[in-house]
Each structure stands twice: as C-alpha cells, then as structure tokens.
Write a structure and sequence with these properties.
DUF2163 domain-containing protein; 187 residues; globular; 2 domains
Length: 187
C-alpha cells in the first residue's frame, strides 16, 4: 500500500498531524468517532468528535489466540459527543459488532484530511456503563479480529473457491484433487 504523496512528504518531514478514529458497525447503523474537533466525513461516514476517546493497548496471546482491548467513549457536551449520540450506539445490537481503530492523517499546514490507516480490529463483546466525573461513559470490551481464526467459515482451500476470489488464479488448482488421491507407498 502506498500513501498519498502529500502524506509521504509530511511524514518524512515529521510534521503529519495524526488523530485516532473508531468505526463501529452495528445491526442497523454504522457509527464513527474521532478525537478531534468538529464532524469529519471519511469514506462517506460522518465521524463525530470526542476528545476523550481512549483505546487500551491490546493484551496479546500466543499463536492465533484472540487478544482483547477496550474502547472508552465519554458523553460530554463540550467534547462533541452528546449523550443522545452515545445512546444511539447503546440502543443498537452491538454484540459481535465489528470495530476498526484508525489513524487519521491530516496536513499540518491546512488541516485537510489526507488518509485513514486501519489499525486494531475486533468485535464488541460487552459494553460496560459507568460515570466519569458525572458524565456517562461507555466502555466497549473488544475481542481482536483474531477471534475469526476460530470461527467456521464457508471458504475452502479449493480451486473452485479460489476462482470466486480471484478468477484465473491457479494456486489451488490441484488442492481438491490431492485430498482424494490415494498413494501406494509399498516398495
């Protein structure tokens, strides 16, 4: 993946402005939050400002085990995230909702949006409710995207399935045949 030229320039200069964004895809709505001021639109989704977003460092396991992390959102009127907006997420079917944490890159000279780079990814397990200095706070407990390593899927390592993914790709051309072959190993 290549970054836009302007982003490459400001990164090389060490001047890029970086903010965090969170995208939550619930049952009937998709919600975006970012730790900046004012609404921004990225790939057609409006991200609401919340200067109080916290994302914990993921707790990693061994191998393909899923890790966990938390996302905290505080409903505080002067931070941009009003309680009514937070209530929208709370009223959704959020169990197993996909969550993506982004780094948003901005031009340091005119603050124009340059690029969204996805980072941590996972699925909401539970949401805890608490108060932070009298303001409502939601803490989403997220299982990393590695949880999908343990889910049964419908894809197979076969030539036919690979053609659905990438027509003409011959990587699995012998895969389905090999599983049915018998070999005589007598000498």
């Amino acid at each position: 993946m290549t970054f836009p030229t302007r982003l490459q320039d400001v990164l090389t200069e060490g001047r890029a402005v970086i903010r965090s964004g969170i995208k939550i895809v619930c049952g009937t709505g998709t919600y975006g939050f970012w730790n900046g001021k004012g609404d921004i639109t990225v790939d057609g989704l409006v991200y609401w400002p919340n200067t109080l977003i916290e994302v914990s460092e993921p707790v990693y396991g061994l191998g393909t085990a899923a890790s966990t992390f938390t996302l905290s959102l505080v409903a505080k009127r002067d931070s941009g995230l009003t309680p009514d907006k937070l209530l929208l997420v709370e009223n959704e079917t959020y169990k197993d909702a996909p969550v993506t944490v982004f780094d948003f890159y901005f031009d340091p000279d005119d603050r124009t949006f340059l690029h969204a780079e996805p980072g941590a990814y996972g699925f909401i397990d539970t949401i805890d409710h608490s108060r932070d200095n009298g303001e409502k706070k939601l803490v989403a407990n997220v299982r990393s995207g590695a949880i999908a390593n343990h889910r049964d899927g419908y894809r197979t390592a076969s030539h036919e399935d690979q053609q659905l993914v990438s027509s003409g790709d011959m990587f699995f051309q012998y895969a389905s045949k090999v599983q049915h072959e018998t070999f005589d190993i007598s000498f």
